[in-house]
Amino acid sequence: MSEKLPSYGGQALIEGVLMRGSKGLAAAMRKPDGQIVIETQQLTGIYTNPLFKLPFIRGIISLWDSLGIGMHFLTVSANMQTGEDEKLEGPALYLTLALSLSLGVGLFFLLPAAIGHLTIYFLNFSTWWSNVVEGIVRLILAIGYIWAIGKMPDIARVFSYHGAEHKTINAFEDGAELTPEIVSRYSVEHPRCGTAFLLTLIVLSILVFSFLGPLGGIWRYIARLLLIIPLASLSYELIRWSSNHRNNSLVNLIVKPNLALQHLTTNEPTLDMLEVSIAAFKSMIEEEHKVQEVPLELAHESS
């Protein structure tokens, strides 16, 4: 039986890629002058806590922390492309993040809930059917939103870096040499993608919300807000499980919609983009090894 590979992941940035391991991460970003800048960070603290290994709890911790780290490096990469006077930081940054998060919750959770609720009064739908309509509206909004923003040139480039990230991880997991020319041959699909997580979350919300009993007034919306975190945690576990069973034909059939949706959020990258992604991945691996070597050094010092 072959040794199980580490589950590395990443995220597209603005003119860059973030690669993340279990003990370290690295972000590689190309400046307007063509230079690749790399920032690394060790993952310590909560990642060494036994709670981080518990199912469902690890999902909540990982998703929350990934959101913070992802937004941080997205901001860094965005500021790298602008002048000093245009940088987003301080109160303006936090206000932008808060508005973005609120818009996301409102658009993809509360608005569909309101539309589903209206079908009870205007179309005489049952509670069950109104919840189904809510889920379908949520799915349509999510897919439509992704498709629409993908038509924007700047977002299209981000999606190309997303494709570069997937190709790099696929090449590593296949044992290939990490050069732009070789990595370019690999697929832009990957089962541990955030797009796959999003679709899984939406499908789970359709199933769970469909079987909720009648909730009047504001309780319908409160229930949706309260269930976001548990559903996100369950989605995380399902994505993790499916990625560990990629040789199972039934699992491959189940995840096909997830992989298909990724073609909305990934584009074929250029060799220059792959160069950035590979630089991020190699730097992340180096950071992983640094963290692993620390206990050995301490042990030698104390002996």
Can you tag this structure with a few keywords?
single chain, 303 residues, alpha+beta, 4-stranded antiparallel sheet, globular, disordered C terminus, DUF1385
Polypeptide structure, described:
With 303 residues, the chain is an alpha+beta fold. The protein has one domain. The protein is built from ten helices and four strands, in the order ββββαααααααααα. The chain has helices at residues 57-80, 91-122, 127-149, 153-173, 180-183, 194-210, 219-243, 249-254, 256-261, 271-302, and strands spanning 9-13, 16-20, 24-30, 36-42. A four-stranded antiparallel β-sheet has the order 1-2-3-4. Strand 3 and strand 4 (36-42) form a beta hairpin. Helix 2 packs across helix 3. The longest helix has 32 residues, at 91-122. The two termini are 37 Å apart. Mean pLDDT is 85; it is low at 293-303.
In the sheet with the most strands, the strands line up as 1-2-3-4
Mean pLDDT value: 85
The H/E string reads EEEEHHHHHHHHHH
Q: Indicate the proportion of strand residues.
A: 5-15%
Largest sheet: 4 strands, antiparallel
According to DSSP, the number of beta strands is: 4
Count of separate DSSP helical elements: 10
Q: List segments where confidence is low: pLDDT < 50 over at least 5 consecutive residues.
A: 293-303
- Based on helices, strands and strand pairing, what is the structural class? alpha+beta
**Amount of helix:** 55-70%
Q: What Rg do the Cα atoms give?
A: 21 Å
In the residues, how many domains can be counted? 1
Outline type: globular
